[in-house]
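Design a sequence for this backbone.
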């Protein structure tokens, strides 16, 4: 079983993640993880913090001489912002003089304060912040390294930024990922890219924020990950949970997703063919590569909708001061105009973690060699 836990606050000393269940013999380096973290900082519209935050990484356990030992892998990501926050975020007994009492609509602030009996929104927002996804991406780098041994690649691209929709129907392949990452908005359609950047500039000028839609593609996934036999083993269910756990994600769809509801059954499915290479294939990806909660062996396609960030550089949304109950506008925090390009990298991470977990569930094995051997035997057993 692959499992992971993250800890740490946005402006705390560090984020940490423990990944348990990785097989032994997996090559993992600080540089590889750092490269994935670097991809997460990309994107036009991110705030100033992303320019100076360094993501200083330490492999604390589970890796020796560049390879996993089969023991839990522990990774620390130091917050280089910490020196400015030592007093405000000090774990030692004390108190703040800067309580945040005007919760932001759309953020975790108010519900979190009510639920946990807290009077300072910072006690909630520090952990609710998407900074936490840096720890997930570090775990995802390990999952991606394992998936590479199984011939599986997970990539993403931005298909919508605010109202600007990419028109191109061409989907990037793993070989195109560098081109996607080179785009300032991680968009594969150069015409849409320009319009997206203009939209971000316009929102920035008004102190506003933008949401968007990301498409995640998983290439090389074999048939049979997930299962039809129980609700909590369905691959689409697992992926939906993982994607909706990303901060600010409000919707997820597989293949044609919500659009398939408008089609008739005769036009909504992926017809099955038998090809010369003696295997089944489908020419369309309407179901997003998942039928009956199982991977079909085709391309996995899912889309995630991210709402505009609820922290605005020009706070205009009405709220209530929790101390006085007087109407007001929310407090001001430094923020990003949009984090949609970064959320694509996080979505890849979540898909990679689910697929790696399901691959280990299906094939088993304590070393990478054993997992690959078991996978090969399974593939040989298919017609
Ligand atoms: C975030 C606000 C910004 C973002 C941050 C998430 O941070 P700050 O308030 O320190 O400027 O930069 O994202 C990250 C730190 C990150 O690593 O993604 C928020 O309110 O969630």
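Sequence:
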């Amino acid at each position: 079983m692959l499992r992971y836990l993250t800890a740490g606050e946005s402006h705390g000393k560090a984020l940490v993640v423990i990944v348990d269940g990785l097989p032994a013999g997996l090559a993992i380096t600080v540089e590889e993880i750092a490269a994935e973290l670097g991809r997460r900082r990309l994107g036009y519209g991110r705030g100033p913090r992303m320019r100076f935050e360094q993501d200083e990484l330490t492999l604390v356990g589970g890796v020796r001489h560049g390879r996993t030992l089969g023991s839990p892998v522990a990774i620390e990501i130091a917050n280089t912002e910490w020196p400015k926050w030592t007093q405000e975020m000090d774990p030692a007994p004390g108190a703040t003089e800067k309580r945040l009492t005007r919760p932001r609509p759309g953020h975790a602030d108010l519900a979190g304060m009510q639920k946990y009996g807290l009077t300072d929104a910072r006690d909630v927002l520090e952990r609710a912040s998407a900074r936490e996804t840096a720890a997930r991406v570090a775990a995802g780098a390990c999952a991606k390294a394992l998936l590479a041994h199984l011939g599986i690649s997970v990539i993403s691209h931005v298909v919508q930024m605010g109202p600007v929709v990419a028109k191109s129907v061409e989907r990037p392949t793993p070989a195109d990922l560098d081109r996607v990452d080179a785009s300032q908005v991680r968009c594969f359609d150069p015409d849409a890219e320009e319009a997206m950047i203009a939209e971000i500039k316009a929102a920035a000028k008004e102190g506003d924020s933008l949401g968007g839609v990301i498409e995640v593609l998983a290439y090389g996934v074999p048939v049979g990950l997930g299962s039809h036999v129980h609700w909590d083993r369905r691959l689409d269910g697992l992926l939906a949970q993982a994607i909706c756990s990303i901060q600010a994600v409000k919707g997820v769809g597989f293949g044609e997703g919500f659009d398939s509801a408008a089609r008739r059954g005769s036009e909504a499915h992926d017809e099955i063919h038998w090809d010369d290479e003696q295997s089944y294939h489908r020419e369309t990806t309407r179901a997003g590569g998942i039928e009956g909660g199982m991977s079909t062996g085709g391309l996995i396609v899912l889309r995630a909708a991210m709402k505009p960030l609820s922290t605005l550089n020009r706070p205009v949304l009405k709220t209530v001061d929790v101390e006085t109950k007087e109407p007001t506008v929310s407090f001001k925090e430094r923020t990003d105009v949009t984090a949609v390009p970064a959320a694509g990298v996080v979505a890849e991470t979540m898909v990679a973690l689910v697929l790696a977990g399901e691959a280990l569930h299906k094939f088993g094995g304590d070393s990478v060699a054993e997992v690959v051997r078991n996978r090969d035997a399974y593939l040989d057993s298919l017609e």
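The mean pLDDT is 96.
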